Amino acid sequence: MRYLHTMVRVTDLDASLRFYCDLLGLEEMRRMENDAGRFTLVFLAAPADRDRSDADRSPEVELTFNWDPDPQPYGGGRNFGHLAYKVGDIHAACQRLMDGGVVINRPPRDGRMAFVRSPDGISIELLQEGAPLAPAEPWVSMPNTGSW
Predict the structure, then answer these.
(1) pTM for this one?
(2) What are phi and psi of 96, to 5 degrees?
(3) 125 an active-site residue?
(4) Rounded to whole angstroms, how far apart are CA atoms 106 and 114?
(5) CA-to-CA distance for 107 and 111, rounded, in angstroms?
(6) Exposed, middle or buried, 39 (CB in 10 Å: 0-12/13-18/19+)?
(7) What average pLDDT does range 54-67 have in this prediction?
(8) Maximal C-alpha separation, the chain
(9) Which of 28, 33, 62, 125 is catalytic?
(10) Which of 53, 84, 104, 132 could form a disulfide linkage to 112, CB 3.0–4.6 angstroms apart?
């Protein structure tokens, strides 16, 4: 058995790709359009994972965009948990996200961990690779915002 991917339903594919790719830093690995089923699947991976062979492919995030709006909202209960990514510089990653209009729900006050949310409310945990960075402003003074 091998873990393949986590599927996340998205309501605005362009906004989601901007968040996951342009701001968070994931890369699109492949895309499948299904005219009969009226949906698009976009598979994303972290840059450090993209060069693996198909047999060794690491877990991906599958964005599922249904072309026809669902009459009931998808909901984003905390029962899902979160996606987690290691980053080389948590302060720079959070700054890039914040500059892109993303709310930092749990700032990296400890130089080690932060949480943000995707446009569809999916909680994303960012973890500093290696030792925590030295605490720094504006993160040290920044309060938590919302839930994560």
Answers:
(1) 0.77
(2) -60, -45
(3) yes
(4) 5
(5) 9
(6) middle
(7) 80
(8) 52
(9) 125
(10) 132
Kindly state the helix (H) or strand (E) to which residue 39 belongs, with its residue range. strand 39-45
Cα of 17 vs its chain's centroid, Å: 10
Phi and psi at 19, nearest 5°, equal -65, -55
The Cα–Cα gap between 94 and 108 comes to 8
- Overall average pLDDT of the 69-92 stretch: 77
* pLDDT band per the 50, 70, 90 thresholds, residue 1: very low
Q: How far is CA 90 from CA 36, 104, 121, 132, 135, in A?
A: 42, 12, 20, 9, 11
What is the spatial distance between Cα 54 and Cα 49, in angstroms, rounded to a whole number?
A: 11
12-43 residue pLDDT tens: 999 999 999 999 999 999 999 999 989 999 99
Mean pLDDT of 116-133: 92
- Return the sign of the alpha-carbon dihedral for residues 69, 83, 15, 114: positive
What is the C-alpha to C-alpha distance for residues 123 and 31, in angstroms, rounded to an integer? 23
pLDDT band at residue 70 under the 50/70/90 scheme: confident
* DSSP secondary structure letter of residue 48: G
- How many angstroms separate the CA atoms of 102 and 71, rounded? 27
- Provide the residue type at 114 as one letter: A
